[in-house]
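>> received
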Amino acid sequence: MVAVAPLYTSQNWRTTRVPKHFKFRQAITSPPISRVPTEILCKFFTNFLSEDDSLPPQTCPRPLISLRCYSDPTILGQVCSHWRRVALNLPSLWSTIYICDPSKSHFYLTKLWLERAGGQPLNLSLAATQWRREDMDLHSAFAILSLFLSYSASWRSLDLRLRDVHMGTMQKLVQSALPCSNLESIKFNVRSSPTHKSGWESAYVDDIWSFFNSSPALRSVDLTTKFDGLVLGHTPFHQLKTINIHFAVSIPEAIALLRQFTAIENVTFGSLDVQTPLERHALNHSLVMEYLQILKIDTLLDLTPLFNQLSLPSLRVIDISQRLNEHYPQAGAAFAHLLSRSGCHLDTFNFRNLDIHEDDLKTYILTPALTWLRQLHLSVRLISTDTLALFVERNDTGGHSLMPHLEDLVLGQCRTSDGMLSDLIISRWHRSEEGRGGYLKTFRPWCDGGLGPVDLECMKKFADLGNSTFNSTCYC
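>> returned
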């Protein structure tokens, strides 16, 4: 029988007697936890700070890594001296800071983290959520803003969600700060307090945005304030790759904005909701967005005029969240013409409209240009057996007629005959025993009214296989 050496933990290593026959007796001079190689510790420390989307947002009296990461890197330095040395010499542990509702307790730790980050590129976030001025710790907010601005030369990304009462101080700080030449991403949102005087936008925001826009490295911008002319004149249109527009715009305004961003790759319209007569001069000429790869739209408008204007040869992802009654015109035909005209290979299509009629939905998904689609997420009111049958149909060569390369499929709400879902799974599963499967790896149907016995047995079978072969989840 082989003798097994005792386990020496950080608690018992000093008090446990080491047998004389143990060859490496002299090597045990510290607890094993202190002898973990530095490279492994660095990886562990980095994973310790990863985000968890399942965590609810919280307000904390100390700096956080992000809204959904509660991990405290200072804990790592309390384990042993070795861990502390590694943590203090790993600047990336301290270079990402999120502060919600600044208070006195935040200031010292924020200063400490920034010092430990050294020259590491900084990702800084500050959110002021209180509405009433008497609830705000303005002194601490100003102190932390001043601290952030003193490191402006090291900014990589900045996310500021402030109140109007902060704007005067913010304007003075940017006027004396070092250039933010390394800033790549900026989110800057200012909300007015109910009792505060209006008119601060023109007085302060232009100076502040001018400072941010001066960065030659700037590539991503979140716009939350609508100005005369929609955006400020000093916006670096030619260098931006990502723009997220959160203020409400009309379709002519959206087209006018797109015309200004010649190199844009990623666009989000968070509120394409302004109904206005379509201006003829704005829609006379088609618009080719040569580099646009990702288009996300949240709207309550018919998108036909927008789709008819655009040509997007590089489009890979389109995400449409629509709140449009079924009695209003739908843009399925214009969507099909857009993809055909663009000649793009769409990879991902996400579509949400709980009021769309199923026939109008079919107009979208039967678009021939979706041949190369790999991800389809549909959040709609009804998906019946007739629509699901389209995913099972095969052409004359034996391949799937609809979206033959589909890997990720989310469907809701499904009301189908028993066996339809199982036919879809078996037909498209990427490791079909029949040798005529497809590429499908993830299938998540939302079933209204539950599953029949055939579909239930099929779902259970694939769930038992585990995620290594097929990820099938049914929500009933």
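>> The mean pLDDT is 82.
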